[in-house]
Design goal:
The complex is a heterodimer of chains A (156) and B (258). Chain A is built from 2 helices and no strands. Chain A is an all-alpha fold and 156 residues long. With 258 residues, chain B is mainly α. Chain B has one domain. Chain B starts with 7 loop residues before the first helix and ends with a helix. Classes of the chains: A mainly alpha (156), B mainly alpha (258). At the A-B interface, helix 1 of A face strand 2, helix 2, helix 3, helix 4 and helix 6 of B.
Chain lengths: 156, 258
């Protein structure tokens, strides 16, 4: 249990061990650790950034969706309005056309009536003239006269 | 193993046999071959293990070995960072070496007391003391190395201030110089002695108790040696930790200017 030369041997061993660890073990492992720490920190930062980006994108998408919805509803209401207007307009034109057709028909009828009245008048006039002619030609003969009148009246 | 065959002087002989190192040489020039062999073996084991881990170290996902080694590195590094605020690339590796080496020294204590000596006697080795930290030479080797480093860094960092500190601390008066020198001498000498004796005493006592338990009848032995061994797992780790932390503390004190 005494102190002896073993002490020197142990000191040499110890010094060698410490030197070896200091030169060849500690720096390598420590650097690997530091590097991994950095890597992890970078990864975490990137993940956080990604998440933030995603949130931003989501927000943006929400905004886009909202505007699109607004736009589409606007378009729909506009189209509805337009459709209503078109329907109204076509109703109007149809009515007008009908009125016009009715008027035209009425005018046609009027014209026809006038025409037939005219022709009737003309015919009556011609008949009257011819009747007068006949009467004038057969004035002397009463029987003939009568006969003629009867004839005309028959023709009527 | 230990049986009733150990009579009164037989028991004493058994204990003495277990505590006698395998040595060559006379007087001061005695070499404790077992201490040298086991400490070198354990040191090589430690260095080989860490070197292998360092060579295979990746910055990606670590394997089991690397994980363990990195845990140790981080543990030691945290201890160093907690107490030492200067810049010194020696202290952390020194602390790691001390912790692992002392732990492995102490771990030899957990082998059954008769296992390795029996194997040794079969191979023709008469004495074998397997726990290097039960040899004062092993513990003093470390504590004296640490002491030399304390002196070295005190002079290197403080220079003239170190001499001033020795002369004028704690009593700042020229009349108190002899008294201060005495106080500081005791303070500095106490550091390596307490470091070495604390570890040696604890492990020597622990080993002695294992030997005493081995002297008891075989049916009692497990009931005593098992709890003692489990308790010893705590002790060997604690002693390694204390040695490491005190080394860091002493060296950081050597770096501090007053």
């Amino acid at each position: 249990m005494s102190i002896n030369i073993t002490l020197i041997g142990q000191i040499i061993t110890f010094a060698l061990l410490v030197w070896f660890v200091m030169e060849y073990v500690w720096p390598i492992l420590f650097n690997a650790l530091e590097e991994r720490k950095k890597k992890i920190a970078d990864g975490l930062a990137a993940a956080e950034k990604g998440q933030q980006d995603m949130l931003l994108a989501e927000e943006k998408a929400k905004g886009l969706l909202k505007t699109a919805k607004d736009q589409s509803s606007e378009i729909v209401s506009l189209a509805q309005k337009q459709a209503n207007a078109i329907v109204e307009e076509s109703k109007d034109t149809a009515k007008k056309e009908g009125d016009r057709l009715i008027l035209a028909a009425k005018a046609q009828i009027e014209q026809d009536i006038q025409q037939s009245k005219e022709s009737l008048r003309k015919e009556v006039a011609a008949l009257a003239v011819s009747a007068a002619e006949q009467i004038l030609t057969a004035e002397i003969d009463k029987t003939k006269h009568l006969e003629i009148v009867e004839k005309i009246s028959n023709r009527l | 193993m230990a049986t009733e065959a150990h009579a009164a002087e037989g028991a004493t002989g058994y204990i003495i046999h277990h505590l006698t190192p395998l040595s060559v040489g006379e007087g001061f020039w005695t070499l404790h071959l077992d201490t040298l062999f086991f400490s070198a073996l354990l040191g090589s084991l430690f260095v080989w293990f860490f070197k292998t881990a360092a060579e295979n170290a990746t910055t990606g996902v670590p394997g089991l070995v690397q994980n363990f080694v990195e845990m140790m590195i981080e543990f030691v590094d945290n201890q160093v960072k907690d107490t030492f605020h200067g810049h010194n690339k020696l202290i952390a590796p020194l602390a790691l070496t001390i912790f692992c080496w002392v732990f492995l020294f102490n771990f030899m204590d957990l082998f059954p007391v008769d296992l390795l000596p029996s194997i040794g006697s079969v191979m023709g080795i008469p004495y074998l003391r397997v726990v290097p930290s039960t040899d004062l030479n092993a513990t003093f080797a470390m504590s004296i190395s640490v002491f030399c480093l304390i002196i070295f860094y005190s002079i290197k960092i403080k220079g003239f201030g170190f001499a001033k500190e020795l002369l004028l601390h704690p009593f700042h008066h020229w009349l108190a110089i002899p008294f201060n020198i005495l106080l500081n001498f005791v303070e500095y000498i106490a550091k390596p002695i307490s470091l070495a004796l604390r570890l040696f005493g604890n492990l020597y006592a622990g080993e002695l108790i294992f030997i005493l338990i081995a002297l008891l009848p075989a049916y009692i032995q497990p009931m005593l040696s098992l709890p003692w061994a489990i308790f010893h797992i705590l002790i060997i780790t604690l002693q390694a930790f204390i040695f490491m932390v005190l080394t860091i503390v002493y060296l950081s004190m050597a770096h501090e200017n007053h």
